[in-house]
Amino acid sequence: GPPAKPRPATYAPPRADLGISDAELVRRYEAGESVRQLAASLGTYYSVVYTRLRAEGAQIRPANGQRPKGP
Fold first, then answer.
1. What is the per-residue pLDDT across 22-70, written as a single tens digit (0 to 9) for each?
2. Whether 48 contacts 16, CB under 8 Å
3. pLDDT reported for residue 39
4. Under a CB-based contact definition with an 8 Å cutoff, are residues 35 and 29 in contact?
5. CB atoms within 10 A of CB 67
């Protein structure tokens, strides 16, 4: 048979089909939805959404929703 594909250095489980594209996930997150809200609305886990956002380079907000305070 064909040679096995090399495994990536970091093991990732099979990508869950969230029903929306990664770009749309990031857009919704940057529009103000939290990781927890996205996970709930997509019927998946916090870690799945978080990992996908990180992979897309999204700026992850603090989980407590606090904006950094200015000077």
1. 999 999 999 999 999 999 999 999 999 999 999 999 999 886 655 556 6
2. yes
3. 94
4. yes
5. 7
In terms of Cβ atoms closer than 10 Å to its own Cβ (0-12, 13-18, 19+), residue 21 is exposed
Cα–Cα separations (whole angstroms), residue 63 to 4, 13, 32, 59: 40, 24, 12, 12
Report the C-alpha gap between 44 and 46 in whole angstroms: 7
In three state form, how does the secondary structure of 18-65 look? CCCCHHHHHHHHHCCCCHHHHHHHHCCCHHHHHHHHHHCCCCCCCCCC
Q: What angle do CA 20, 7, 15 make, to 5 degrees?
A: 15
8's tokens: 């990536």
Its pTM stands at: 0.65
Which residues neighbour 45 within 8 Å (Cβ) at sequence distance 6 or greater?
39
